[in-house]
Known about the structure:
Layout: E1 2-6, H1 13-23, E2 30-33, H2 44-53, H3 62-68, H4 78-90, H5 93-99, E3 105-108, E4 111-114, H6 131-140, E5 145-148, E6 154-159, E7 164-168, E8 172-175, E9 181-186, E10 199-205, E11 210-216, H7 220-229, H8 234-238
Amino acid sequence: MRTAIISDIHGNHEALEAVLEDVEGMAIDRMVSLGDNVGYGPDPERVLHTLDERQVPSVLGNHELGLVDVSFLSWFNPTARKSLAITHGLLAPESIQRLRAFDRRYSVGSALFVHGCPPDSVTRYFFEVYDSEWRRLFQRMAESICFVGHTHELAMVEYDDAEIAQHILGCGVHRLKADRRYVVNAGSVGQPRDGDRRAKYVIWDDEDQTIEVRCLTYDVEKTVKKILDLGFPRINARRLL
């Protein structure tokens, strides 16, 4: 089974289109989104509609949570709160209602999908977890692999029932070991923060035991113009350049 994992699209439909076009040629059996499909970017409604058309399941991201639970808005910095306010105005009421149905976790087969950190955190970052806590998390995790987003970066932690090892992931194929368990930070489709502005997504092949990081160019300038034209904070555009 080959699974495409996408994360942190953030309303960037140009980046999502590039990913979906690439997926067509990759013999993918299913696709899962790790949340933050909206926020920061200019096309939240279009992104959600595209994911619905493709029947892509999604977990709840912190930006979706900020749109459906006003009590959570204080968690965000002022720039993100302004972005969410603009995003709210760009979404149809029925789209916001659909976000309320997103679960904090999604599990299928031997894999767990969460926005922030297992078992079901929407807000905790990968880099906030120390090795001693990773051990406890792995010991409580029934699945052999978990995919997370939230940081907009690519990384992986592995556990062999004794030791923890962490790795930075680059574009290309990374082989997994059958006797290890993993948490994979899947990067960002629409707003990467790893110094490489290309759209990123991950393909997991559970038969070949590989993770492939796909890195794709798209029309960044088109997205940037739309961000600025809609009055989003300028940093949302600068982060893409």
